[in-house]
Specification:
By secondary structure, the chain is of the alpha+beta class. The protein folds into two domains: 218 residues, P-loop containing nucleotide triphosphate hydrolases (Rossmann fold, 3-Layer(aba) Sandwich); 126 residues, OB fold (Dihydrolipoamide Acetyltransferase, E2P), CATH 2.40.50. The chain contains nine helices and 21 strands. The strands form four sheets. It has a six-stranded mixed sheet with strand order 7-8-9-3-10-11, with helices on both faces. A five-stranded antiparallel sheet has the order 2-1-4-5-6, with helices on one face. A five-stranded antiparallel sheet has the order 14-13-12-15-21, with no helix packed on it. Helix 2 packs parallel to helix 4 and helix 4 packs parallel to helix 5. The two termini are 32 Å apart.
Length: 386
């Protein structure tokens, strides 16, 4: 396994027609880092520059290997990377099997054990003898992923790989992407403008606005810092582990930093499975006393981190569940009257009743798009990239 501390370092600037790009960020050597922002913010341009397909000024290094700096520029074919485009771009005249072997043959030959592992991981065994024309959109993208991974990359670049797929095909392929996330020991740069995808897959995020970095870092703290957790779409996504299944009640018990939560169990997975859960701020109410028995199953003890006004009649409370590391948080949207009445103070312990906890598998709704436009507007106040 590669050292996750030796990751990705990018600092690029230049003009692409009328568009100016000036970005700098770093990412770990393992896990998924999302390049996130509205259309035209520079996401794909950055990915192409990292691949060497677009030449800009600056530096690019991956895993300690410098691909671009000063007069040094490693051409694309000598960069150990896998690239998955919006369209699968498979060779139509050969089988799925020949397609996935293509990249491996160019980088030292096919490793049968690695091939078998990836074929199983992506569930494409039954597809191997088929022609690409006989595949669905989701199947084509899984084959493209296998081909990219079997080329032995040091980094995997994914340019909105789900944007050309319908809802059904997206739901088909997302579990496979989650399995890759858990299995691959290389970094992934994942371009997306879909917050639901990012919440489900990413560990870190680079939020882009007009060719510049608005905020970058670990997923949840950065979304909060960038203002993407303050509007009507305010929510928190945290990782928990399934500890029990109740088939009779169709519930799964998950462990969130040592505290139990209950979610609908149909899609939770087996005991021991790590799952991301999404808690809407509007589904959280607060009390200083342990809640009386009610139809709300979930109550977390949490420490108040901050209270801030979020709208004319509302306040947003940031809370750290007891047992959670610094930076992990849930949000509660309460009325301004309640905020004044209870005068919650940072550092005090409260009970957070959670009406609904969902697995991070459903679309985050349309409100996030408006929140993104507001949060990345000219008055955001984040410094530009150097």
């Amino acid at each position: 396994m590669r050292d996750a501390r030796v990751g990705i370092s990018v600092a690029l600037s230049g003009r692409l027609g009328a568009f100016a790009l000036d970005v700098a960020f770093e990412a770990p050597g393992q896990g998924v880092t999302a390049l996130f922002g509205p259309s035209g913010s520079g996401k794909t341009s950055i990915l192409r520059a990292v691949a060497g397909l677009q030449r800009l000024d600056g530096r690019v290094s991956v895993g300690g290997e410098v691909w671009q700096k000063g007069g040094r520029f490693v051409p694309p074919h000598r960069r150990a990377l896998g690239y998955v485009f919006q369209e699968a771009s498979l060779f139509p005249h050969v089988s799925v099997s020949a397609n996935i072997d293509y990249g491996a043959k160019r980088t030292g030959g096919v490793d049968p054990a690695a091939r078998a592992e990836i074929v199983d991981l992506l569930g494409i065994g039954p597809l191997l003898p088929r022609a690409p024309a006989r595949l669905s959109g989701g199947e084509r993208q899984r084959v493209a992923l296998a081909r990219a991974i079997l080329s032995r990359p040091r980094i995997l670049l994914m340019d909105e790989p789900l944007s050309a797929l319908g809802a059904e095909a997206k739901n088909e392929i997302l579990p496979y992407l989650e399995r890759l996330h858990a299995s691959l020991a290389i970094p992934i740069l994942y371009v997306s403008h879909d917050l639901a995808e990012v919440e489900r897959l990413a560990d870190g995020i680079v939020v882009l606005r007009n060719g510049r970095v608005a905020a970058a870092g670990a997923l949840e703290p950065t979304l909060r810092a960038a203002g993407l957790r303050r509007g009507r779409s305010a929510a928190a996504v945290l990782t928990a582990r399934v500890v029990a299944l109740d088939v009779g009640d169709a519930l799964a018990e998950i462990d969130l930093f040592g505290q139990p939560l209950f979610v609908a169990g149909g899609a939770a997975g087996d005991v021991g499975t790590a799952r991301r859960v999404r808690i809407e701020a509007s589904d959280v109410s607060l009390s200083r006393q342990a809640p009386a028995p009610s139809t709300i199953l979930n109550a977390l003890r949490a420490e108040v981190v901050s209270v801030e006004e979020s709208a004319a009649a509302e306040a947003l409370v940031t809370l750290r569940p007891l047992g959670a590391p610094v930076g992990a948080a849930i949000l509660a949207r309460i009325t301004r009257r309640s905020a004044c009445r209870f005068a919650f103070r940072p550092g005090e312990t409260v009970f957070a009743q959670v009406k609904t906890v969902s697995l991070a598998t459903q679309p985050a709704g349309e409100a996030w798009a408006r929140d993104l436009a507001i949060a990345t507007g000219p008055d955001l106040g984040y410094p530009s990239s150097p």
